[in-house]
Amino acid sequence: MAATIRDIRNRTGLSLATISKYLNGGNVLPENRKAIAEAIEELHYEVNEVARGLATQKSRTIGVLIQTFDNIFMGSIVSNIERILREHNYGTIVCDCQQDKKLEEEEIHFLLGKRVDGIITIPTAGNAGYLQAAVDRKIPIVLLDRTFTDQKFDSILVDNVEAARGAVQILIDHGHTRIAIICGDDSEYTARERLRGYCTALESANIDIEASYIKRGKLSTAHGYESMKELLAMKDRPSAVFFSNYEITLGGIMAINELHVAFPQEISLIGFDNFMLSKVINPKLWMVNQPMETIAQQAAELMLKRLEESGKKGEDYEPETIILPTDMVEGESIRALS
Amino acid sequence: MAATIRDIRNRTGLSLATISKYLNGGNVLPENRKAIAEAIEELHYEVNEVARGLATQKSRTIGVLIQTFDNIFMGSIVSNIERILREHNYGTIVCDCQQDKKLEEEEIHFLLGKRVDGIITIPTAGNAGYLQAAVDRKIPIVLLDRTFTDQKFDSILVDNVEAARGAVQILIDHGHTRIAIICGDDSEYTARERLRGYCTALESANIDIEASYIKRGKLSTAHGYESMKELLAMKDRPSAVFFSNYEITLGGIMAINELHVAFPQEISLIGFDNFMLSKVINPKLWMVNQPMETIAQQAAELMLKRLEESGKKGEDYEPETIILPTDMVEGESIRALS
DNA sequence: CTGTTAGCGCGTTCAC
DNA sequence: GTGAACGCGCTAACAG
Q1: Number of other CB atoms surrounding residue A149 within 10 Å
Q2: Is A309 found in the same domain as A250?
Q3: How many helices (H) and strands (E) does chain B have?
Q4: How far apart are alpha carbons A266 and A262 in whole angstroms?
Q5: Helix, strand, coil percent content, chain A, rounded in steps of 5
């Protein structure tokens, strides 16, 4: 159906090699250039990237494997990665594994089957095993948001410890000492880090860590919701709560609204990762904000760099770890205790 | 680097055809099956989908072209489409054109270059011109959320007129007559439809349509924000406002919060498309809700159906239009006037 | 049921 | 600068 390079040959009388050179920016006589350009125009010719991929052993496609699509966080990251890669003429195949480790490994094979030139992923699994097939293929891999301890990869992270420490410090600065955290469990890299930041802040302020103020569980709206309710029901309830991720923030706010608890009057709050919420909730929520665009940009650029390298020099390189700072969005959800 | 079908031949002594048949589910002797399976295992063989694509002239990849990634609406749709297609062994290449018509057309060519087997898209442009190249290629195209008048395509739509009519009717039922709408301008298909629904509701209740209560502009947070402020500043300000899309709802709420306007006491509100907001805003927001999962599912399934058909029968088919109903999420943001 | 032989559309040597 | 020939990895007839 679609025109091929051969149709252009028939139309121009030139050889395949000449046309190929034209397409790839080689030296071609001006008159021939013109003839080819015209033929392309008239025949609506478009390079068949599949055939080109077979010949060059490069698909000019990057696989992006994330945990879920269902939050604005992912949308922003995927969107930006996709945009930057496309500007460099790379396509993006996006998969989400729905937090399922088995699916996650399957997706890797799926992407490898498509012969992606590289993989950018936000891991769901706790270790790098599922990536082995990709590692064997020696294609660039860039990890986002979390890393592994068992194997080194290029990684783009945020400083989770510092982000959490900073959030708790703000509460301390406002005079709070009964500070709770709702966070993920030990299986979650980011949860471990953020909990560490929480503890660090309290310790350096000489505040005892109260186990019942630490609510661990899944990184879900439900966990945020339930935990917030439990905290509110305590006899010696905390005066401030740190929601340590997006879903938890959402769930926590839902519980607060449902129980008609006024904040910051009755309880002080600081959330995570939910810039939209901070604009829409009344009173405005204090919030730790991750630099989504920067994360995406760094990931895409590191990937492009690796792709370029692997064309030139030897295969091996030293994995890089880029740690980005978070920033704080001020709100009105923290009450100063005298 | 990676093993090919030839390596398996060398390993098993069988021919390429036999191995190919094995891979494609043909009849192969049990002993040979076993030998091949073992070789695949040991060599870590994975089908090269690029080569297969060249041979079959099918990429088993669908292009999804959307306007933007930056709202949860898109995330949900893309996520579900991707999941369903993958379950049928199709990959998905997602592009967003950032509401830019020129980019939109470029993306189509990009996808065609990748030889996608079909395209699912939420159009940005007002007419089907940009799709011409894809139409010429005779690949299935499914439109989401909006259609064109100049050319017929498979389309998955929601009943925008009825959705808007229903929203305004709720306000009327609560005794409101000074009802404003913040919506998009005439260039937007959905905006036209929703405005029609608004007018229909008012007319059938014999309420005069007040031009100053109709705020048209871009489908942006900024437009929602500015318009809401303007409405609140009117001498004869409306007693109720219908936010007719996601961003507008967001912007409207921001304005309300900023000006510390109490709702529903001072003004009644009903929003669109922002399920998350409805859970998190206090008091709960009334909301028109689009069935995202169903939209995505219908789109993916229609695409799969077309792909199957084009394998069998003739090329042509009669475009289908599927119109889905919206539903209403009750809240506490509407005050009953006596 | 299995092996042989052509392509699929393009990139890439080499000679010319 | 240009042209012919081969190969990328796989599928699809057709013969056996």
Answers
A1: 9
A2: no
A3: 13, 12
A4: 6
A5: 50, 15, 35
Cβ neighbours of residue A293 under 8 Å, at least 6 residues apart? A76, A80
Q: Residue A282's closest chain B neighbor by CA? A: B257
> Are A165 and A211 in the same domain?
yes
Q: Does the pLDDT of residue A277 top 80, yes or no?
A: no
Q: Is the CB of A56 under 7 A from strand C?
A: yes
Residue span of the structural domain in which B91 resides? 58-158+293-325
B37 touches strand C (CB under 7 A): no
Tell me how far apart the alpha carbons of residues A325 and B26 are, in angstroms, rounded to a whole number.
55
Same domain, B165 and B94: no
- Rounded, the Å distance between the CA of A51 and C1' of D8 is 9
- Residue B6: alpha-carbon gap to chain centroid: 43
Going by the DSSP 8-state scheme, the letter that residue A337 receives in this structure is P
- Is A321 in a helix, a strand, or coil? strand
Does residue A132 sit at the B interface (CB-CB below 8 Å)? Answer: no
For A260-277, give the DSSP string: T--TTTT-EEEEES-HHH
Whether residue A143 is predicted with pLDDT greater than 90 in this model: the reply is: yes
Helix pair A30-43, A16-23: axis angle to 10 deg = 80
Tell which B residues from 293 to 322 touch A, by Cβ distance under 8 Å.
none
Instruction: Give residue-wise pLDDT tens across range B55-100.
Output: 999 999 999 999 988 777 888 899 999 999 999 989 999 898 988 9
CB contact residues (below 8 A), chain B span 210-269, against chain A: 250, 253-254, 257
Residue A138, pLDDT score = 92
A319-328 burial code (b ≥16 CB/10 A, e <16): eeebeeebee
All residues at 6 or more sequence positions from A84 whose CB lies less than 8 Å from its CB, including other chains: A296, A297, A300, A301, A304
How many domains does chain A divide into? 3
Q: Does residue B338 fall inside a structural domain?
A: no
The predicted pLDDT at position B285 comes to 94
Say yes or no: B85 and B105 in one domain.
yes
CATH number at residue B276: 3.40.50.2300
| Most distant CA pair in chain B, distance | 88
In B 35-74, which Cβ lie closer than 7 Å to strand D?
45, 47-48, 51-52, 54-56
- Token pair listed for A40: 């392309």
Do B71 and A75 touch, CB atoms closer than 8 A?
Answer: yes
- Per the listing, tokens 């000449």 go with A18
Q: What's the CA gap between A115 and B60, in Å, rounded?
A: 13
Question: A37 lies in a domain?
Answer: yes
Longest dimension (CA), chain A: 88
Report pTM: 0.91
Q: Is residue B332 assigned to a domain?
A: no
Strands (E), chain B: 61-66, 91-96, 118-121, 141-144, 154-158, 179-184, 214-217, 240-243, 268-272, 286-289, 321-324, 327-329
Whether A176 and A279 share a structural domain: yes
A95 CB near a chain B CB, below 8 Å?
A: yes
Counting every residue, how long is chain A?
Answer: 338
The SS3 assignment for A183 reads strand
How close, in Å, is residue B282 to chain A by CA atoms? 6
Mean confidence (pLDDT) of chain B = 92
DSSP, res A174: T
